[in-house]
Amino acid sequence: KTFEIKLCVDNAEVNSKKQQLLLKELDKNGVNYNVRKLQVGDFLWIAVDGDNRELVLDVVVERKRLDDLAQSITGGRFTEQKLRLKSCGLARKVYLVETKASYLSLPEQSLKQAVVNTQVIDGFTI
Questions:
Q1: Which of the residues 4, 10, 25, 49 is marked catalytic?
Q2: Does 122 or 55 have the greater pLDDT score?
Q3: Residue 13 appears among annotated catalytic residues
Q4: Considering 27, 42, 49, 80, which one is annotated as catalytic?
Q5: How far apart are the two ends of the chain, measured CA to CA in Å?
Q6: Burial level of 80, CB count in 10 A (0-12/13-18/19+)?
Q7: Is 58 a catalytic residue?
Q8: Contact at 8 Å (CB) between 110 and 73?
Q9: Going along 4-126, which residue ranges are E strands?
Q10: Whether residue 49 lies in the annotated active site
Q11: pTM (2 decimals)?
């Protein structure tokens, strides 16, 4: 049996002009993707068989800009998102943290500690 691998991109990731750049980069690099509402994470991969059945592969990615990570921590969303990711049933959970940010609402050391805790205590790949 053959499968086609597709990257699923959460539609919340492509709602702004800046985020549309992501889709342009995916197109430019020949990535097979589709945009849809994901229940958890920002990206995951599926295998589609000849009968158009979709099988979710065992990786989910949550993307965060550093300033968004700071806001998630102070607003309580970070803990809730980690719990949802941990209970989603997929073995590989990845936080993709984009470090370029001009304004942070938390000290950089606090953000580094949150990243380390998420790796060591929660078992995520960062």
A1: 10
A2: 55
A3: yes
A4: 42
A5: 33
A6: exposed
A7: no
A8: yes
A9: 4-10, 33-36, 43-48, 54-65, 92-98
A10: no
A11: 0.78
Tell me which H or E stretch contains 120: helix 108-120
pLDDT tens readout for residues 54-72: 999 999 999 888 888 888 8
Q: How many Å apart are CA 20 and CA 24, to the nearest integer?
A: 7
Annotated catalytic residue within 13, 67, 68, 122:
13
| CA angle in degrees (0–180, nearest 5) for 43-49-51 | 125
**Cα 14 to the chain's mean position, in Å?**
13
Averaged over 34-38, what is the pLDDT? 93
CB 61 within 8 A of CB 96: yes
Strands of the 92-98 sheet, one edge to the other: 33-36, 4-10, 43-48, 54-65, 92-98
CA distance 12 to 123: 25
Residue 46: CB partners within 8 Å, gap ≥ 6?
Answer: 5, 6, 8, 54, 55, 56, 57
